[in-house]
Design a protein that fits this description.
The structure holds 2 protein chains of 2 kinds. Chain A contains no helices and 11 strands. Chain A is an all-beta fold. Chain A is globular. Chain B is mainly β. In chain B, strands 2, 5, 6, 10, 11 and 12 form a 6-stranded mixed β-sheet that branches. The termini of chain B are far apart. Chain B is globular, with a radius of gyration of 14 Å. Chain B has no helices and 12 strands. In chain B, 0% of the residues lie in helices and 50% in strands. The chains are: A mainly beta, B mainly beta. At the A-B interface, strand 4, strand 5 and strand 10 of A face strand 6, strand 10 and strand 11 of B.
């Protein structure tokens, strides 16, 4: 069964460093998402991406964040200068098509980011 | 604004007990409703969904009914198992328009003891 994969599973970095979180969505999906979950809190939407551009982003997704689909299979989230409060579990998701409420978003296992 | 309120945890039950996790939502339009489950050390998995009023989603013995009049989507299971121990998230997705993001509740940790 196709699945979303994410690497690394755990990333430890120093404050101020750049990190890139990687995701391989399900191969025939067209829509990609990043969510994050700060420990003990709810899962929060960061950004959605379609046709090589951002479709929607939350207020969390400021200028320190960027997303890219560098090739036909990877989808990356970059944080330019990490802050302590960026420590969280980051989930990638993908779905087949937009706009209908019945679409299922398939989630990866997450990358735990720890900023020291 | 749009939000999901679900029962605070943790919830601890004995095997074969009845489970209810309450979930209510505030959303514009006619959202689709979901329950996601997160087993220890794993990512989010879709447990069940309902896309319109009065629909009942079901999977693995879990059920939830889309109640538009009470804006609720409570999760139930008649007889829980140890393997059901996980965190359960209620979520909705607005249909149409430009809002395609899932909005999640805070999650409810369920522990089932043998």
């Amino acid at each position: 069964e196709p699945e979303v994969t994410q690497t690394p599973s755990h990333q430890v970095t120093q404050m101020g460093q750049e990190v890139i979180l990687r995701c391989v969505p399900i191969s025939n999906h067209l829509y990609f998402y990043w969510y994050r979950q700060i420990l003990g809190q709810k899962v929060e939407f960061l950004v959605s991406f379609y046709n090589n551009e951002i479709s929607e982003k939350s207020e969390i997704f400021d200028d320190q964040f960027s997303v890219e689909r560098p090739d036909g299979s990877n989808f990356t989230l970059k944080i330019r200068s990490t802050k302590l409060e960026d420590s969280a579990m980051y989930f990638c998701a993908s779905s087949g098509s937009f706009g209908t409420g019945s679409n299922e978003q398939f989630f990866g296992p997450g990358t735990r980011l720890t900023v020291l | 604004g749009n939000s999901v309120t679900q029962m605070e945890g943790p919830v601890t039950l004995s095997e074969e007990a009845f489970l209810t996790i309450n979930c209510t939502y505030t959303a514009t339009g006619y959202p689709s409703l979901f329950w996601y489950v997160q087993y220890p050390g794993e990512g989010l998995q879709l447990l069940l969904k309902a896309t319109k009023a009065d629909d009942k989603g079901s999977n693995k013995g879990f059920e939830a009914t889309y109640r538009k009049e009470t804006t609720s989507f409570h999760l139930e299971k008649g007889s829980v198992q140890v393997s059901d121990s996980a965190v359960y998230f209620c979520a909705f997705l607005n249909s149409g328009g430009s809002n395609y993001k899932l909005t999640f509740g805070k999650g409810t940790l369920l522990t089932v003891n043998p």
